[in-house]
Amino acid sequence: MMAQVGYFALLLALLISLMQAVAPFVPLKRKDPVIAVFVDQAAFGQLVFVIIAFASLTYAFVISDFSLSVVAANSHTTKPLLYKVTGVWGNHEGSMLLWVLILAAFGAAVALFGDNIPDRLRSKTLGVHAMIAVGFLAFIIMTSNPFATLAEPPADGNGLNPILQDPGLAIHPPFLYLGYVGFSMAFSFSVAALIEGRVDACWARWVRPWVLAAWCFLTIGIALGSAWAYYTLGWGGWWFWDPVENASLMPWLAGTALLHSALVVERRSTLVSWTILLGILTFSLSLIGTFLVRSGVLTSVHAFAQDPSRGEFVLLLIFLSTGGSLALYAIRAPKLKTGSAFSIISRESGLVLNNVLLSAVAFTVLLGTFYPLVIDMIGGDKISVGPPYYALTFVPIATPLLLVMALGPALKWKRDDLRAAFSRLKLAAIGGVVGAIVVMGLTFGHNILTAFFMAVAIWIIVGSILLLAQRVRLGSAPFSTSVKLIGTTPRAFYGLVIAHAGIGVLVAGIAGMSTWATEKIDLMRPGQAIELSGYELRLRSIDDVQGPNYEAERGSFEITRNGRLVTQLYSERRFYPVRQQQTTAAGIRTNLISNLYVALGESDGAGRWTVRFYYHPFMPLVWIGAFTMAFGGFVSLSDRRFRVGAPKRSARLPAMAPAQ
Amino acid sequence: MSRLTFFAPLAAFVLLLTGLMFSLKNDPHNMPSMLIDKAAPTFVLASLADGGDSGLSNEDLKGEPLLLNVFASWCPACRVEHPFLMRLANNQDFKIVGIDWKDNRQKGQRWLAQYQSPYTHVGFDESGRVGIDFGVTGVPETFVIDRDGRVRYRHAGPLTEEVWRDVFEPLLMHLRSAP
């Protein structure tokens, strides 16, 4: 029953989005307000029916309705309720439905909150947005119908892959999707602007909150994904440069560039066509990344073979959306008006440099991701592009980007003096040098690179804080003035400071982790102990434990330092009978500066177990940094400039002083 | 800026897409094995285990219909496929033999020790020679071999429930009941 309801809801959603896609472009006697109202209503209607479809599928998972083939293949009656629900998007069909659900939600949000956007632009934007929806709804209905039924439902399902039964994995895809799909808004706005043939400061102000929201979600999604990999894969790695991770990193880098170039459009009405191009490319990278990687073209050329029609359909969609919009760009962009000129030393130049470098790193990641495919295609061997490639390409380009990051916001718009800007950041530079000297001293000059990156981290963090200090004129004005300025400083400025400082924390984490992490892998008997970086790890006992749908061996460990107990840790090796599959749950102890990490491995059959013991200094900083960045984004998003229902205010705002 | 510059992104995109189209064409299903219905190539492989079972040769493929699965420890798709093979090995009454392809002996052994082995015999094909004779283009690949040691079907990519139900099961039934 639910299957029919869900399927019918999908068909209706497709029908509505078709009308929504066509209405704004019908050249009949145009009545903008009428069309705009129709398009807004269509966006709501589309969301309602996609919600019904999604809810039906979720319900089928919750009640274990195995007459649906997706449920039979991916669920099991003994599975905990939480994982029954997350199982909805733990498979191809359901994840596509989630994708469309988020797409529809973004469209409806623009219809709801976008009443400050002129009718014509809004309905065109929603029209373009609906075209994407048409494409993906058709894709679901024609090639990946989640409501396909089985003639003879099995007595029990096939279980969800136990690797996927984890809270981290359960929640990170929705965040990633919010990010990927959120960039569709930038795409729709860009294409609509090209069709309208007009881009101005207002356009940038309307599009930025959507880009910012998507960027924040994507940042959280990537951080959660990395944390998940860290504690479930059981070997202590947190970033592998594998295609799935790259697929999320590429739109993130392009989205970061877009965020900054849209700022220039908003402030100075320049870099217009470049920003439009970024809007198109960011979403295209989301599409190319997600679908080509998820469908397995990159990990193995084989995966498409299971259902080539899906691969071809996705390629067709990418061809139509990206190809179509780039063709439109080629024709329309030259006609867009470009704003005022700026001097070489200015905030604009800093942001241009930011964009050039961000695009360059995004391109290296793209190249690294697709290179194995190209080699495979021309008949060469299977190769994998690993960390050495990125160390040689990504790092050298990202480094100047980090250096400029603190300097850029210290520059004034239009024209500035480099020496003056540097003098504003004197303290940050001194802090960096002192940090480097301390690191060099502590390591007896062995870790020159680490010292350098620690200096970069301090330069960014202190530089960002100095920015705020100068903004509130701390020290240069009476204290009471500063306090007053703290209150009047726009939230967007705080957002900038927090997000940039977050990058600094992240850099410190990566630098420390890549140099000072230590590990020991050994066979241990209960009672035995091993030592690593001053910590002593003792395996106390191994017990058999029974989980809800798995059996496990649990290792109890005790860590001491100089004879004093630091912590007790448990690591489990789980076996899932339904899937005959093994997973590891690592034991981790963190003090927010460093991690101790224990993973129980296989037994040698003679009473000894493989134990992996890691000491990871600075590891938590990586995620603290990433979440700080996302937090900064949200703070900026709460700025009143972006706030809804203030249609008239926006016209006056450009006069406001140099916020970020 | 010249107007042509604005066409550059489109040109780059078309180039990328053409490449991807080719990689779709590269689909192994479009080039079925030359070996279908012919005898499996002659080969003798050492066992993956140190001095364990007797290794694997084309003679071992004769007798009863069986599955020949080509895998490697470096292959993520094999990791994906593995639980399914385990389920087959535990619930179905035919043999699965494996060829560890272009791998490192220790890594292959460790891989099987960690995830359990669904195979009755595992041959170690370090150079990839035997794989090439079978026309293997990547791992995992699975061949259905009949009781006379002839190759009857080739599947590239991980085995899935669907492929199993639609192709393998009927084929194996047929091979088994055939005189």
Topology:
The complex is a heterodimer of chains A (660) and B (179).
Chain A: H1 2-22, H2 32-62, H3 69-74, H4 81-86, H5 92-113, H6 119-143, H7 167-196, H8 201-232, H9 243-268, H10 272-294, H11 308-332, H12 347-377, H13 387-407, H14 418-424, H15 426-442, H16 448-471, H17 479-488, H18 491-516, E1 518-524, E2 529-532, E3 535-546, E4 551-561, E5 564-576, E6 581-585, E7 587-590, E8 594-603, E9 609-617, H19 619-637, H20 649-652
Antiparallel strand pairs in A: 1-9, 2-3, 3-4, 4-5, 5-6, 7-8, 8-9
Chain B: H1 8-25, E1 44-47, E2 56-57, E3 66-71, H2 76-91, E4 96-101, H3 105-115, E5 121-125, H4 129-134, E6 141-145, E7 151-156, H5 161-177
Can you walk me through this structure?
The complex is a heterodimer of chains A (660) and B (179). Chain A has 660 residues and is of the alpha+beta class. Chain A folds into four domains: 160 residues, no CATH class; 250 residues, no CATH class; 65 residues, no CATH class; 155 residues, no CATH class. In chain A, 62% of the residues lie in helices and 11% in strands. Chain A contains 20 helices and nine strands. In chain A, the strands form two sheets. A five-stranded antiparallel beta sheet of chain A has the order 2-3-4-5-6, with no helix packed on it. Chain B has 179 residues and is an alpha/beta fold. Chain B has a single domain, classed as Glutaredoxin. In chain B, strand 1 and strand 2 form a beta hairpin. Chains A and B meet through helix 10, helix 11 and helix 12 of A and helix 1, helix 2, helix 3 and helix 5 of B.
